[in-house]
Amino acid sequence: NNQPLAFYQLVDLPAKIKLDISSSLDYYSYIAPAVPGTFKDFTNGVIKNDKIYFTSERSSIIELLKNALGNIENHKFNWFDSVILQVSDKNRFRNIYKIDKNKWNLKNLYSYYLMLPKDKKDQLYYFIKQDIERYFRITSKIETRKVFYYILIKKGNCDKLKSLGGTPVDCLRISTIIHPVNDSVRKMNNIPFEKFSDRIGTYIQGTFGKPFKDETGIKENIDIQLDPAAIDSRNLMEMRKQLWKYNLDVVEELRDRKVLIIRDN
Fold this sequence. Notes:
Radius of gyration: 23 Å
Number of helices: 6
């Protein structure tokens, strides 16, 4: 459309700071704007020469806090619906105004390095949390909140799902631009229901950006066949119509969920 493309020239990352050259230096932390045109890099708690190192390059504030708090509280964050921003400027945490991605990255991605004595490795993630909160003037914690889930449920008798046995077959794939699927039949035969649920859950979470939960209680192997056009349509109602044939449904309901709360300090 005769519009300029905002690309960066790929560059080598400048030499990392080498404050640890001095044998007398026991600890440092370092925050700087990410270097445009470089790859994302991540090193989590590497121990070397009686020191422990953490590196996170080209990371957002949210990514840094998720890593710290996720490890402190042994909680695995997903990319969707796991952060609540109670801050005056939400755009520095997320590109909520949908500006050019490269321009947003230039202002809001950071490189963060940390070195600690090895005997402080148990405090590694507390140091990260404190650094990020202090520098960006925020506070953060994990809290349990009610959030909307897509819930897979049974609408009645699901005997139609019961497997007739035989050789397991799994060609229930969902077509994407990156991974196109041309199969005219999309089905599972003699496959554990859990695998089907995981497949549908990944599709729903990735397409509609909300968490998914299976509350059917089904454990057995199943046989199921879905219409390719319906599941490739990215239309939840079309997907639901396919599930109705087997007395399954996907509904939107509130459930408790651990979320990252970020507040201005």
